[in-house]
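2.7 Reproducibility. Because tokenized structures are sensitive to small changes in the input, we list the exact sequence used for D-isomer specific 2-hydroxyacid dehydrogenase, including any N-terminal residues retained from the expression construct. No trimming or masking was applied before prediction.
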Amino acid sequence: MGKPKVLLLGKIDHATASWNALSDVAELVTAQAKNRAEFIEECTSGRLDGVVIICDRAPSSLAVTGKYDEELIQALPKTLKFICHNGAGYDNINVSACTARSILVSNCPNVVDDATADTAIFLILAALRGFNNGIMAIRNGTWKGAVPPPPLGHDPQGKVLGILGMGGIGRNLKKKAEAFGMSVIYYNRKQLDVEQADGAEYVSFDDLLARSDVLSLNLPLNAGTRNIISTPEFEKMKDGVVIVNTARGGVMDEAALVDALNTGKVLSVGLDVYQQEPNIHPGLVSNPHVCLLPHMGTSTVEVSTVHRLSFNKMGMLIQMG
Ligand SMILES: O=CC(=O)O
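Resulting structure tokens (single pass, no recycling of outputs):
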């Protein structure tokens, strides 16, 4: 019997040696397709027959696969057994459709905790302090910007940080935020045990909305969390609340956020993720109180280097049969 085939979708920049080392135990193949239609055609033409594992390097794979929806999953090679998704969030994969085809799906949680929590800290500071006003003004050649100048920002010290979703990233953010003098409350589907909560106060969803000076979204996107923050939720928040989203754009209603910014209910926002990436609601782009990043929360050499280990593990799994 030949070696099992592993199909790489997307680019590898920092784990090339580990990827190549997999060839000891697997036949490494790449797709010729440049877009989803071509990929589906490539799968159905039989060129990828024999592929047992897909190594999905999101987001660079997205241009070729689009969402792993029912249509795509039905087209994948009949021999496929595993999809190894290199991100933490796997909302782009219809896991039920994979299960129906007996395809196992794995993701990479934990490795992104530091990088994502660091990004949340950056956005919290930027939004609280109004740094985006200054960043825009200095690049426009107007030094500190408008006359009269924009209102003074706020220190994180003494503020209540509400964390919605207290998984690995939420807990990592809690520790970092405490170093800036913030006190942390959280809401999660389940209350954490004492050790994991580490002093963070568990509150109801409504209390989280009502008590947070800064609200950080750190929960996965799924049918139950889509638009979990929308107009009724903004109404329950403090006037002048600051919101940061490093999770998925789909958990917050962007149009409702623009309205809440325009009325002053929300003072400022820090965003790394959007509902329809790479498109961003024009009301967010034009608002100087919104600090925007192009979904780069996990884009570090260290995260990519840890992904290397996942190739090594994939190799070991193949060897173990
Ligand atoms: O967004 C990045 C990830 O899900 O890892």
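The chain has two domains: 5-107+301-320, 112-288.
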